């Protein structure tokens, strides 16, 4: 038995050195990847992309909840409605750059896209797991836009659809329509990779790419966050258009049934399952999605007008009541 102990010790030492080497390689690889895998464009890169297409683009920043937020937009014409694009994870406002450069969308509306908290240039690598807080951080854009009294349509993809839905729940006075792409709405109805748990362990979390860290933090808290939203789906009354690839393996297609079950108070719900497409329909189905967005604008405008009328009606009733009371006196 004793003759095997030196051999066992040598084997364990080799195994330990191998594991240490693999760990160090993983750490070095993560640190290097962080510099190259960011899925974002700087202000200069953003300007360059649109300048190459001879299209104007504007970049704005604001501060909220101790965080600087960045957004980009095509123009701010008071006579046009607004479309705000909200990206998924991991990503940034650059995810929708082809939509912001689309000539049909530019003619129809002011186009805005925001870097969500933890992505792009809104605190890169500093995730915010709370969907409600993310909605609150993005809300100042809509509050500013609504000062000019015009309809606002939210277009969101993947995880961003959770944020858009929460904004419609918490800020009904700011949202007039939803276009949801590959929506992640139902608690637990999405794929979570085992590696997400490994990367968020103390051994790896500090060395993984910041963009991946933001996505993993959101992913691992997503079910709990969506469960917290369950009582509020009845608050969504805006028109909704839902697109999903029929072969989506990342966000399960059961989300479509969930949407039909929960969005019973939406003024209109249209669900489109796209055959032979997976999760990335924002890219692969853009020729279908862009006309659908344009077609949603009149519906958002109608909802906006109705909402404004309903807001004015109680005030008018109160004025008439006061006048009648004064006449009786």
From TrEMBL:
<dbReference type="InterPro" id="IPR050266">
    <property type="entry name" value="AB_hydrolase_sf"/>
</dbReference>
<dbReference type="InterPro" id="IPR029058">
    <property type="entry name" value="AB_hydrolase_fold"/>
</dbReference>
<protein>
    <submittedName>
        <fullName>Alpha/beta fold hydrolase</fullName>
    </submittedName>
</protein>
<dbReference type="GO" id="GO:0016020">
    <property type="term" value="C:membrane"/>
</dbReference>
<keyword id="KW-0378">Hydrolase</keyword>
<feature type="domain" description="AB hydrolase-1">
    <location>
        <begin position="81"/>
        <end position="187"/>
    </location>
</feature>
<dbReference type="GO" id="GO:0016787">
    <property type="term" value="F:hydrolase activity"/>
</dbReference>
<dbReference type="Pfam" id="PF00561">
    <property type="entry name" value="Abhydrolase_1"/>
</dbReference>
<dbReference type="InterPro" id="IPR000073">
    <property type="entry name" value="AB_hydrolase_1"/>
</dbReference>
């Amino acid at each position: 038995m004793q003759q095997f102990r030196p051999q066992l010790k040598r084997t364990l030492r080799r195994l330990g050195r191998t594991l240490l080497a693999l760990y160090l390689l993983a750490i070095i690889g993560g640190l290097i990847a962080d510099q190259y895998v960011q899925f974002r464009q700087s202000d200069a890169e953003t300007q360059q992309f649109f300048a190459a297409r001879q299209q104007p683009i504007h970049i704005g920043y604001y501060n909220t909840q101790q965080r600087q937020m960045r957004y980009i937009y095509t123009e701010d014409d008071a006579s046009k409605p607004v479309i705000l694009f909200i990206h998924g994870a991991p990503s940034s406002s650059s995810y929708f750059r082809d939509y912001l450069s689309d000539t049909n969308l530019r003619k129809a509306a002011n186009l805005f896209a925001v870097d969500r908290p933890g992505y792009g240039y809104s605190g890169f690598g500093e995730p915010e797991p709370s969907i409600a807080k993310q909605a609150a951080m993005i809300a100042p854009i809509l509050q500013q836009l609504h000062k000019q009294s015009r309809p606002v349509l939210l277009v969101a993809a993947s995880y961003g659809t959770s944020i858009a839905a929460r904004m419609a729940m918490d800020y009904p006075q700011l949202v007039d329509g939803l276009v949801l792409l590959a929506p992640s709405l139902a608690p637990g109805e999405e794929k979570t990779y085992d590696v997400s748990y490994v990367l968020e362990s103390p051994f790896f979390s500090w060395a993984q790419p910041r963009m991946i860290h933001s996505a993993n933090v959101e992913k691992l808290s997503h079910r709990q966050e969506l469960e917290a939203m369950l009582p509020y789906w009845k608050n969504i009354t805006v028109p909704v258009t839902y697109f999903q690839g029929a072969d989506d393996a990342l966000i399960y297609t059961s989300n479509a049934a969930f949407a039909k079950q929960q969005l019973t108070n939406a003024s209109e719900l249209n669900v489109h399952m796209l055959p032979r497409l997976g999760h990335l329909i924002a890219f692969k189905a853009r020729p279908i999605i862009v006309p659908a967005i344009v077609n949603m604008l009149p519906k958002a405008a109608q909802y906006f007008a109705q909402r404004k009328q309903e807001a004015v009606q109680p005030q008018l009733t109160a004025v008439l009541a006061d006048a009648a009371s004064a006449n009786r006196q």
